[in-house]
Amino acid sequence: MVTTHKKMMLLGLGAALLLAVGRGRAQDVAPGFIRVNTEPAGAAVYLDGVMKDVSPVVISDVEPGEHLLTISKDGYLEARRTVRLEPEQRLVVEQRLEPILGLVVINSSPDEAFVQINDADRGQTPLLLTDLPLGTYRMRLTRPGYIAKQLELRIEDRIPRKLNVELQSSSAKLTLSSNPSGANVILNGIAMGMTPCELGRIPSGESVIEVTYAGYQPFKRTMTLQAGQEEELDVVLQPVPSELVVVSIPEKARVYVDNQYRGEAPLTLEDIEPGEYRVRAELPGYSALARNVVVPRNSNIVEEFRLEANSGILELTTEPAGVRVFIDGDEVGVTTAEEDETDRVSQPFMVRLVTEGEHKVQLSLEGYFAEDFTVEIKRDETATRHVKLKRRFIPNYEVQTMTGTERGVLLEIDLSGNIRLEVRPGIIKAIPAEDVKSGRPLRGE
Q1: Which of 51, 359, 368, 395 is the most exposed place for a label (fewest CB within 10 A)?
Q2: Average pLDDT of the residues in 39-57
Q3: Looking at beta carbons, which pairs linking 120-128 to residues 24 or more positions away fall under 8 Å?
Q4: CATH number for the domain running over 172-236
């Protein structure tokens, strides 16, 4: 039977043996250390997932064997390295960190703008940038004829970014059209082409626009334009006025233009707009003549109207003279006797330019019955008529005599005061002056 003392001795021997074995093993796996340097410094260093410190850092008491080093820093790609450490080894790890670079696409309207990043030229739009580390940058876009634009560019990650930059013109733009088109355009004294056209890069301030076209009045306007301003201008050109002269043979024809009476020929119409007009000339005794007249721009046109007579002549004598003559209701004159001749028969009364055809003639004289008749007028011929008017017996004078009162138609009072009075139709009474007490007309009655 084993005694308690023996048991204790056996336990002591076992413990000593285990301690000796443990000391042998500890001498075989002596720890080492790892020094980690990074470019740039200040990176967080992890060993087997455990944060140790920021670089540069020395990690001591590292068991021999394989270990995972993880190195990270904001703005840089994470670095992972597997290292193998021998017992009591002093391992130095040098790690260069790669910066995180952004992906930026820069477009501009219009394109081909020059791009500067932190005052460094990087090219023209459209532009792809792949080498910018994370951070904030000054970006400047310039293009001739446009206002430079400054922007802040922030790159926070690797996610691609697309920028669209609208550039504002440093000058104005004018879109110009005209009626008619094809007119010459002059900007500030410089020929710019023909309408329709687009004038770009007009400097800010006042500019003088001129539009010219042959046969039209020139157009001129001063415009005040600002940078970036876009304007449209539609110019309606006015034709240069023309002149139309209307001549008639014979003269004095009445002239109508598009049925509007404009005067007697010869007639000058100034400042008439170019175009087509209906011109008519009329003259009593002549056939009216009308035609279409085309008046070009900036021209002087003479139109002659040779009128063809369509009339004849009415030659009229009346008995007595002094008869008022009417043709178709219009009074044309009075028949007269020759000087120092009796008024019993008039001299020939000529009515010219009576249009051919049938006309109604009316004759009127106070104290006589009116006469009406119809006459046929032929072209270039003379129609003659002699008309004797029948006198009406209408007492128009009263004479007080020594023996009484006489009423009748007064025929004559001579220089001596003798009176001839028709007291009844065809009965004439002579009253000597010495018998006349008084006389008066009876018109009031």
Answers
A1: 51
A2: 94
A3: 125/165, 128/103, 128/104
A4: 2.60.40.1120
Q: Could you give the dihedral angle defined by the CA atoms of residues 352, 357, 358 and 359, in that order, rounded to the nearest 10 degrees? A: -30
Amino acid at 228: G
Give just the sign of the alpha carbon dihedral 215, 292, 256, 250.
positive
- Tell me, rounded to whole angstroms, the distance of Cα 145 from its chain centroid: 28
Q: Note the CATH number of domain 311-388.
A: 2.60.40.3070
User: What's the pLDDT score for residue 3?
Assistant: 41
d(CA 57, CA 66): 19
- The class that CATH gives domain 101-166 is mainly beta
Q: What tokens appear for 193 in the block? A: 């082409």
115-148: string of b/e by CB count within 10 Å (b at 16+)? bbbeeeebeebebebeebebeebebbbebeebee
Closest CA to 421 of 413, 436, 409, 432: 409
Q: pLDDT tens digits, residue range 325-364?
A: 999 999 999 999 877 666 688 999 999 888 889 999 999 9
What is residue 7's three-state secondary structure? Answer: helix
pLDDT of residue 380: 86
Mean pLDDT computed over 306-315: 91
